[in-house]
Amino acid sequence: MDPLTVLNTLWRHKWTAIPIIILTLLGCVYVYMFAPRTYEASMSYALAAPKIPSDYELQQNKELSKLNSDNPYLRSGDSSLLSQVVIAQLSDPSVAEELEATGLGNEFTIAPVANLGMGLVKITGTANTADIAVETARVLGKKFQETIKVVQEVNDADSSYLYSALPVQGPGPAEELYSSRLRSLIMVGIAGAVLLFGAVSIAQSISIRKVQRRAVDAAEQVAVAQVVHIQENLGGYQIDDAKSRYRPIVEPDSGQIFVTNLKPMQLDEHVVPRSKKVSGGSSISAKQSDEKS
Question: What is the pTM for the complete model shown?
């Protein structure tokens, strides 16, 4: 649709559009200033491999040889498998439900730091306040450390043969996610636009019906005026017949009504006036042949 046509339509129905535009702007201001905020806090952990005794140390220290070294994750050669297992367990919906039950945020992410592989894992907690976001990240960090230990003890391996999660960063002060404000503003703007065009469409439809009704009334008035004119001079012409000869035409841009004579009546030296003022002050033009019979 032509943008100028849209603007023209909005201007014609400005008293319908302006209140909706004002309400939409007020809604955007309210959302930006007073709507709930979203904060994010994060922690980072490095997975440190255990110090495995050498054969010489085992021979020198008989106590070391008695320790259970059956940690299945030591066989993979790196910590990627262990990280994936822990992330999968903490991503279970039951963890989010447990956090929510304690009043913490139920939205979080646990993922390896980009470009650093599975050796460094970042935990991010999200909440409606900064304090809750920080506490969420801290609780998740503790769960991360506990889960790492539990999954490695599946075969009762000794703690000296387990990977450990070392805190690297955080949780520092939570930061506000301005993207949440932006999403809210976009939603309010879309809702306002839908409401605006819906209201203007209804107003436009009502306006078109009114103009069409005026056009029909104008055509009938021209027909009656012509019959009266003819009867005063010749007589014997019926109003219903005259009405059937006229078709109203409405210009979409200006809304001006024209009445076209479909069956020009041929009369001797009698011509209906080409324009006539009718109800509402509209200018009605009647296009009619003035041929003589």
Answer: 0.58
